[in-house]
Amino acid sequence: MSVLVYTESEQGTFKKAALEVASYAKAVANQLGTTVTAVTINVDGASELGNYGVDKVLNVSNPQLQSFNANSYAEAIKQAAEKEAAKVVIVSSSADSKYLAPLLAVGLNAGYASNVIEAPTSTSPFTVKRTAFTNKAFEISQINTDVKIIGVSNNSFGLVENSGNASSEDFSPSISDSGIKVESIDKATDKVTIADADIVVSAGRGLKGPENWGMVEELADVLGAATACSKPVSDLGWRPHSEHVGQTGKPVASNLYIAIGISGAIQHLAGINASKVKVVINTDAEAPFFKAADYGVVGDAFEVVPQLIEKLKAFKAQQ
Amino acid sequence: MKILVCISHVPDTTSKINFSEGDTKFDTNGVQFVINPNDEFGLTRAMWFKEKQGAHVTVVNVGSTETEPTLRKALAIGADAAIRVNTAASDGFSVAKQLANVVKDGAYDLVIAGRESIDYNGGMVPGMIAGLTNANFVNNCIGLEVDGTSAQVVREIDGGKETVSTALPLVIGGQKGLVEESDLRIPNMRGIMMARQKPLTVVDPIDANAETTSVKFEKPAPKGAVKLVSADNLDELVNLLHNEAKVI
Ligand SMILES: Cc1cc2nc3c(=O)[nH]c(=O)nc-3n(C[C@H](O)[C@H](O)[C@H](O)COP(=O)(O)OP(=O)(O)OC[C@H]3O[C@@H](n4cnc5c(N)ncnc54)[C@H](O)[C@@H]3O)c2cc1C
């Protein structure tokens, strides 16, 4: 009856979120007095996962699972959960995990709570805290089914080292045809994505036009950050839709969110409330974003951002 | 093609969120309800299929009588028929079970739902309907074409997009991008008049217990005041981010 955790990887390397969900699984296992089994797909990482509290790794290696596919991945995880008689299954809140989790919930007849931000407040009844109303509130939610699925929000629990030695075992689930055929993938592989980023540098209509994004990208480069934008910016076609942050765009749960020339409309704030530290650069001292920010600079982005880039470069050089 | 569009009835995006009854219930006082934005993109895409390729579009909501104005609005936008499953929506799984039952009953070819609703943000209803009805499922859809019984779908992935092909019956979780925002429709007078004549069928719910229950709600702790740094003193900002906030 261990806790099962699905640890996501990309091209043979664990995502940071995988180590975070492993850390979370360990906390739940401690509460339940049991062990943690991780299921990995096409990556061998017992030693790395052991450092985050995993006791046993089920390695699935299967060419049918080479690229992500929600149905097949859900099947593999379901069979792993059944093999381990897992009562709690933990996944991340990546787009892929949010895609497969509802299918897994049906397969396991399990209640699923997404966007969970803390270890369970109680395991009997099983109670978790999650974000709701697009980060404008928290919901304390009780999962009533025998098997439970928890989707952990990125950067909410953090990485917790729990040195240990994980054993490793091959696991071969039977996978049926997924019904979905990938025709093409269009993805900038060298870029940090909003979902994985610790730092997000975001800019709004205050930047006046797409030709001014060079400094935003440079600032992101210096910080190893992902770039993002407000909705009108993507609507105007200045930046791709995948960068649009907010209630109708992507949620951001980074450690640092820098908002440049963004007014801070309620729909934008809803998407970034889960970020820990917010910095705002805006010419308008009355911009609503200053009420939501931790640090603010009232000033013209075209003057502030280039200077900030120089200061950060100097700071990084000293580190 | 028979299309079912799932419509969630949600507080409009500018709503102040408050709770009542000892923070156990969402306080609807003064709140305006709208079609969930992610569903609105899907509904508009369904209208496109109806007009360009011929399709019969039914909208469905699981909810009590209060949600009927939202369904009427969807009819005024152009849906042909509406169904309300007569039970208060509780958790995502039980809502998905009600909807899956409607899907099976009506033998729909395409089910369009929103990636998530902006109130509880569960993000589970579309996938669960697919799981419960054994249909193909694509989430985070930003493009959809159907030709006969095959479909081509573009979905957003972290850092880009992916194009997949699949077959009907299909369930999608849609979002912004599925249609241009400028194509979203506001009901006009004619649409509103016509909506009155269209069927809004109320069906009884099936037995489906809530797998999860809301015990309580909390609001985020009030934020401290922003620390302003002068534009001439950005060293201070770097210093604060490094030493105080410890994020760089
Ligand atoms: C249903 C609905 C859903 C929505 N969902 C979203 C969403 O998901 N995400 C989202 O972002 N928005 C969303 N919006 C839109 C939202 O209401 C705002 O319109 C939007 O966030 C404003 O974007 P902005 O701040 O970039 O632009 P603006 O409101 O134009 O603000 C630009 C800001 O830049 C500042 N500025 C100008 N020049 C400079 C300069 N040189 N240097 C520094 N600052 C400068 C200005 O002072 C201003 O504060 C939604 C709206 C609706 C109705």
How would you describe this structure in keywords?
heterodimer, A: 319 residues, alpha/beta, seven-stranded parallel beta sheet, 9 helices, 18 strands, elongated, B: 248 residues, nine-stranded mixed beta sheet, 15 strands, globular, binds flavin-adenine dinucleotide
Give an overview in words:
The complex is a heterodimer of chains A (319) and B (248). Chain A is of the alpha/beta class. Chain A is 29% helix and 27% strand. In chain A, helix 3 crosses helix 4 and helix 5 packs parallel to helix 9. The longest helix of chain A has 18 residues. The radius of gyration of chain A is 21 Å and the shape is elongated. The model of chain A has no long low-confidence stretch (mean pLDDT 95). Chain B contains six helices and 15 strands. In chain B, the strands form three sheets. Chain B has a nine-stranded mixed β-sheet with strand order 11-10-9-12-8-1-6-7-13, sandwiched between helices. At the A-B interface, helix 4, strand 7, strand 9, strand 10 and strand 13 of A face helix 3, helix 4, strand 9, strand 10 and strand 11 of B. Strand 18 of chain A pairs parallel with strand 15 of chain B. The structure holds flavin-adenine dinucleotide. Flavin-adenine dinucleotide (FAD) binds next to helix 6, helix 7, strand 17 and helix 9 of chain A.
